[in-house]
Design brief:
Number of domains: 2
CATH topology of the largest domain: BirA Bifunctional Protein, domain 2
Structural class: alpha+beta
CATH class of the largest domain: Alpha Beta
Largest sheet: 8 strands, mixed
Helix content: 25-40%
Number of helices: 15
Distance between the termini: 44 Å
Strand content: 15-25%
CATH superfamily of the largest domain: Bira Bifunctional Protein, Domain 2
Radius of gyration: 28 Å
Shape: elongated
Strand order of the largest sheet: 1-5-6-11-10-9-7-8
Number of strands: 16
Length: 411
RNA sequence: GCCGGGGUAGGGUAGCGGUUAUCCUGUAGCCUUGUGGAGGCUACGAUCCGAGUUCGACUCUCGGUCCCGGCCCCA
């Protein structure tokens, strides 16, 4: 092979492309029904957008470059930051909330493995301008509905950072961040070591360790026991009540921390089986990024779906459309073009462009799995009736153009 | 960044220090340009790249690269 594709990228052949588009369309139908509006942002952005959000450390995992004007750029590694940037740049005066979605490719300079590529697709949703439980619940419900529509059985875990943040509010901000990161990693020994290091009170220490293990149906009650009656728990409970109304199964998991500072409250993750180490197909939560990009105090909530991982476990196959091949002879090629043009108003029509002989055209029609062959030969032109052959059964009949279209459409 | 397994025609494969490199499949054409699926014939087509060892390397060694799986990371 002379030129290979770049590491971590993929070619999608026609069959796989059709599968992907089909599932994409299924998910688009869902977001359309929920009245979310699609947006498109640039494939590359100023590098600063991503370092502001995720720190200088991300540069190691970005496709970044300097352009010819010596500006520092990066291919987008995700779309939340670009969408928030877009909001700050040109949507701040729009009615709230904004319910937006996107489906785009993203780029990360990482080691490829199962379910992880250097170019990958994210289907994401962001609600901008509401911090109500209603918004959080809608986001989770939408994510779940989209996955269900794609035939994915996911395991939904919901948590709330407000509760753990409330417990930590007396600590220094950087101490809070550090603890959140350790919780996110489920690094219990690291956590204990750190508690020791910064010497936090024994009671807080015990409560924290207890809280991050809270799961199950009585999680809310247990959390109240540990932290007391606080507004964050009320909010979380309200989200769960709404989720019940949406009839959604979930597990409560207060150990989800999503170790990044801009997450503010509800957080959730959805896992699917059959994906090996990279089994998370969806992650989201409420967050606050707009001030970071120079906008006002506008809360947001959203999620991203890992489309490639979804495709890996999705078994939905696109419906095959009836395919029609026009068979012509050398003297009727121009007539064949006219017939094809007429039929294409209603059907998908394949026309020979190899000047194959009659027999080989039919053979080729068979090869490409045609459902019908429409013969446009001298006899047909003279009689004004086409010969329509059912390639599966092998029978054929003489029909007018309109009759032929009807027959094939209704088959 | 780390660990392991791999790389032979478009796809799937066999093999071996010296072979015309195996087989299946595919594609194109032909077996009267008015009837496909079978069959026959012909053509196309490969040892990932580089260095080393050797009289001789697809085969052994080293480096690179890419693929697969795992760790780390995961916005």
């Amino acid at each position: 092979m002379k030129v290979s594709k770049p590491r971590g990228t993929r070619d999608f052949l026609p069959e796989e492309t059709a599968r992907r588009r089909n599932v994409e369309n299924i998910m688009r139908q869902v977001v359309n029904k929920w009245d979310y509006k699609e947006v498109i942002t640039p494939t590359f952005e100023n590098l600063e957008l991503f370092t502001l959000k995720s720190g200088e450390g991300v540069i190691g995992e970005l496709y970044n470059f300097s352009d010819k004007g010596d500006r520092k750029m990066a291919l987008r590694p995700e779309l939340t930051a670009p969408v928030m940037r877009m909001y700050v740049n040109e949507m701040q005066a729009t009615p709230r909330p904004q319910k937006l979605f996107y489906f785009e490719n993203c780029f990360r300079y990482e080691r490829p493995q199962k379910g992880r590529f250097r170019e990958f697709w994210q289907f994401g949703v962001e609600v901008i301008g509401s911090n109500r439980p209603d918004a959080d619940a809608e986001i989770i419900a939408l994510a779940t509905t989209m996955l269900n529509a794609a035939g994915i059985k996911g395991d939904l875990h919901v948590g709330h950072l407000g509760i753990i943040r409330h417990m930590l509010k007396e600590l220094e901000p950087d101490q809070q961040s550090k603890i959140m990161r350790l919780v996110d990693k489920k690094d219990d020994t690291g956590l204990e070591d750190y508690f020791e290091e910064i010497n936090i009170p024994v009671e807080l220490r015990r409560n924290l360790l207890e809280l991050i293990c809270v799961t199950g149906t009585d999680a809310i009650a247990k959390a109240r026991e540990i932290v007391g009656d606080i507004e964050e728990i009320d909010k979380f409970e309200q989200i769960l009540i709404f989720l019940d109304a949406y009839d959604i199964d979930y597990s409560i998991n207060l150990g989800i921390a999503r170790g990044l500072d801009y997450y503010t409250g509800m957080v959730f993750e959805i896992y699917a089986e059959g994906l090996g180490a990279q089994n998370q197909v969806c992650g989201g939560g409420s967050y606050q990024l707009i001030p970071l990009f120079g906008g006002g105090d506008v809360p947001s909530t959203g999620f991203g779906l890992g489309f490639d991982r979804i495709m890996e476990v999705c078994e939905i196959m696109p419906e095959k459309q009836k395919s029609v091949v026009i068979i012509a002879t050398d003297e009727t090629r121009t007539d064949a073009i006219k017939v094809a043009t007429s039929m294409r108003k209603e059907l998908t029509v394949y026309l020979d462009i190899m000047q194959r002989n009659f027999k080989t055209q039919l053979s080729h029609a068979n090869n490409i799995g045609a459902d019908y062959a429409v013969i446009v030969g001298k006899k047909e032109i003279e009689s004004g009736k086409l010969t329509v052959k059912n390639m599966e059964i092998g029978d054929q009949s003489q029909l007018t153009l309109d009759e032929a279209i009807e027959l094939i459409k209704n088959s």
